[in-house]
C-alpha cells in the first residue's frame, strides 16, 4: 500500500503544469492595429486610386534599327559578292541617347502637343499618370521617361519602344511623329558624315584651284608686260635666222675664195664679196647677242632673263595643272565613296494601334504595393519585439 502511494506520488509530481487560456495583450492589439494601419489601409488606398482615379492607357509599339547601305562599283560586283547592308552600332548609340534628350521632347511637344495628350483637365483626378499643363520642360521630360519605355539591344542594334497615351490614336500619333523625328536625325547624321568624308578632298581641291589660277594669272601678266606669247618660239625663230645667216656666210666665203683664186685683189667682185661676208658676220653677231650667245650686255642679259622667267612660269603652271588634276580625281573618288554609304532608319515594327487598354497594370501595381507594405509592417513588428526583449 505504501509502495502504491509512493508510485502515485512520483507520477503526480511528473505531470506537466495545467495550460491556462491566453489573453489578447497590448502588444497583440498593437500588432493588429499596425497591420491595419501599415498594410490594409495603404493597399485599400492604392486600389481605390488605381481603379477609380487612374484612366486607362493604350500602348503603341514601335521598333526600328539604323541600317547602312554600301553599294560597290561594277568592278567590285564582278569580282565577288560584296556587303550590301549592315547595322551601325555607333549611330544606334547616338539615336538611343537622342530618344531621352530634352531636344526630342521639345520637338515632340511642338509636333504632337504632349501636354494636351498626357494632361488632364482636373489636375487632382490623376496627379501621378498625367502631366501638369503648366509644368516646365523638365517636368515634361520626366513624364516622357515614364510614358515612353525604350528597349535597346546593343548586339543587334534594334530599338523597341512602347508609347502610352489615354487614347489609342494619340499613342499611334506620338509613335509616328517619333519615328519621323528619328529618321530626320539619322539623315542629318548621314549628311554630316558625308561632308566630313569629302571635306579634306574639297579643301585640297580648292587649294589646287587657287594655285592654278595664280599660275595662269602670273603667266598672263608676263605676256602682257613683255608683249610676247611664247619667248621660246621667238628664240626658235631667231635661231633659225642665225642658222640661215650662217649658211649664207658659208656660201659667201666659198664664193669669195673662188673669186680670189680666179681674179685680182682689186677686182670689184672681190670687194663686193668681202663686204657681203662682213655684213653677214655682223648680222650673225648681232643676232647671237640678242639670243645671249655672244658677249654679255644689258640687252642680252634682259632677254635671257625673260626666257628664264617664262620657263619658270610654265613649270609653275604645269605643276599647278597636275596638282589640280590629282586633287579633282581625289575629290571625285571621295565623293563617290561617300555616296556609296547611306544610312536610313528601318522599322521592323510599324506604329501599332491598340484596341484594348492594357495599362496601367492595376493588379500588378496593387500587389507590389501590398507586398511592400507587408514587408514594411514585418520589419516594424520585428524591430518592436526585439526592443521589447532587450528590456
Automatic annotation (TrEMBL):
It comes from the Bacteria. InterPro entries: Bact_polysacc_biosynth/exp (IPR050445). Residues 198-262 form a coiled coil. The chain crosses the membrane at residues 30-51, 365-387. The keyword Transmembrane helix applies. Keywords: Coiled coil, Membrane, Transmembrane, Transmembrane helix. This is Capsule biosynthesis protein.
